[in-house]
Amino acid sequence: MTTSTTYYDLRLLIGGEAILASARQSLPVEDPSTREEIGRLPIATDDDLQRALESAARGFARWRATSAYDRANVLRGAARLIRERLEAIARILTLEEGKPIVESRLEVQAAADIIEWCGEEGRRAYGRVVPARSTAVRQTVLREPVGPVAAFTPWNFPAVTPARKLAGALGAGCSIVIKPSEETPATALALVDALRDAGLPEDVVNVVFGDPPHISETLLASPVIRKISFTGSIAVGKHLAGLAAKGLKRATLELGGHAPVIVSAKADLGKAVAMSASSKYRNAGQVCVSPSRFFVQDGIFADFVEAFTKKASSLRIGHGLDETTQMSSLANERRREGIAALVDDAKQRGGTIRTGGERLESNGFFYAPTVITDVPPAARVLSEEPFGPVAVITRFTELDEAIAQANALPYALAAYAFTQDVSESIRLGNEIEAGMIGINQFGIAFAELPFGGIKDSGYGSEGGVEGLDGYMITKSVTVA
Known about the structure:
alpha/beta; 14 helices; Aldehyde Dehydrogenase, Chain A, domain 1; 6-stranded mixed β-sheet; 2 domains
């Protein structure tokens, strides 16, 4: 580990054995802000995957027999090490994902919080004694780990998303085979190293990389795996859900979103603009809960658009390691092409580009912070998740209309609203369809809160007691 811009030693971790890129076929890892190759990533063979499954079975037998108290000590120790290594891990995260270093530091701190919280909560995964119908009978309900877990994480939050899956599984007493994104592998490896340095036994965590469809199909076909946890696209999530169903394996799926923001005329306008712009362009909009569809009431529409556009156009763009950067590059060319196609479609249908709407000249994958108004309902950007620095602002007259528009899509991960009226706040909280709702703020993702969506945005939660429950089974024991 280093605090310089040096990258990480990329490897597979199978049964405690580190397998470097020199020992396998490998893939390049690039800095998305420069397109420079910064590392080579080894690809797991079929034999590697089978050994990872065997290791997970051994690890589960050992870890489930470890007391919740001792498991918590390991996770708490790992959280301490991650905080001590925060600067080094944050720099690695920025190098491989591209986000500004300030955001990377916050993400690594959040990962440490998640790991510590799940360790502590695992100590409180209580069962209960149920009064029996006979004094000669004792009825108990036990909470036990579900078994070895297969987990798959995306590139946009390479610390927080693996941390949720590692911490949930380990806090409950499960072993885990995790496949982080091949585009951002080092951050997850740094978290696993902290866990191992804190005393996590060999075999409890295995880390693999390679062809995602092949790895997922191989792992989910094995009777060793008893649960999957996936964060990513709706299409892939549905496919994995089908594979899990064939083996009656438990699944937690956190899929896509297209978060609406309803801004009432009764909102604090300055607060709504400042918080909305800051949240929209965090990680260049590559956030599953990023606000992307803004519905603003007639009376304040013009003022909101003007102020929001001013903030968007003034953002400082640059490499994520520059401390002054406010928004950096996208993670890959796929995202830039996808965003450009959505913006071009909106323009062709009559949308007005208030700012941005273009690629930026650079070696990296940069796209300007963009604001679009006057977008007709048929525009793709109103129905397809942009997952980039694009905000679409639409006016509404009555609150009924805004709520209907917010609920119109199959996505229902996160939603937001701004109003100073208590009755409107209550109504919005009750009537908006989403797994997570923030009113007058965007802070919805904390270790102690459930994180997950409904409808096509998935099912199950990560975080909170609900997240830990997803890694546990319920067993009743009756003794006479």
